[in-house]
Amino acid sequence: MDDWQQRIDAVWDAAAATSEEETVARIDALVSERPADDPSALFEAAGARDYAGREADAEPLYRAAIAGGLADPQRAQAVIQLASTLRNLGRPGESVELLHAELTAHPEHELADAARAFLALALHDLGRHAAAVATAVGALAPHLPLYRRAVANYAHDLTTR
């Protein structure tokens, strides 16, 4: 891990003890050390704005980071965070489309279940409650020590009703 990323991580580690705007300012100071089109820097700037409740400011930065070739695992994080931002901006349909595309392209990614959790929230916002529950329960099923098969089958049944 390079020094820049370590300093970014230190800001996030201290975020709970500082104000949201101070966190944004500290991230922005580090982002300014990188080229304006650096995908990792754009991702960090977006995340800081998201953290501060400034979703409208975060959205174009997430999109630029992804379009700029952000590498995994940050790419997957950016997609999930962008989907969450879209949902918070009142656009759950766009969130569902983005997460469906992510899960289709990367169904076994280490963050796939996190994507499914945000997908369930967006589906709920759209009034697609059975699909939301099926998505959430389906993501949970593989992690259960008992009843894994039964829970997975119930999740599947919700989508076929």
Description:
The protein is mainly alpha-helical. It folds into two domains: 1-71; 93-161. The chain is 73% helix and 0% strand. It has helices spanning 3-14, 20-31, 39-51, 55-67, 74-88, 92-105, 112-125, 129-140, 148-160. Helix 1 (3-14) packs antiparallel against helix 2 (20-31), helix 3 packs parallel to helix 5 (74-88) and helix 4 (55-67) runs antiparallel to helix 5. The longest helix is centred in the middle third of the chain and has 15 residues, at 74-88. The radius of gyration is 17 Å and the shape is elongated. The model has no long low-confidence stretch (mean pLDDT 95).
Summarize the biggest pleated sheet. none
Termini gap:
48 Å
**Into which percentage range does the β-strand content fall?**
under 5%
Helix content: over 70%
Number of domains: 2
Detail the poorly predicted runs.
none
Average pLDDT metric: 95
- Our Rg estimate from Cα atoms comes to 17 Å
- What is the general shape? elongated
Count of discrete alpha- or pi-helical segments spanning 4 or more residues: 9
- What is the N-to-C order of secondary-structure elements (H for helix, E for strand)? HHHHHHHHH
Fold blueprint:
Elements: H1 3-14, H2 20-31, H3 39-51, H4 55-67, H5 74-88, H6 92-105, H7 112-125, H8 129-140, H9 148-160
Helix pairs in contact: 1-2, 2-3, 3-4, 3-5, 4-5, 5-6, 5-7, 6-7, 7-8, 8-9
Keywords:
mainly alpha, 9 helices, 2 domains, 161 residues
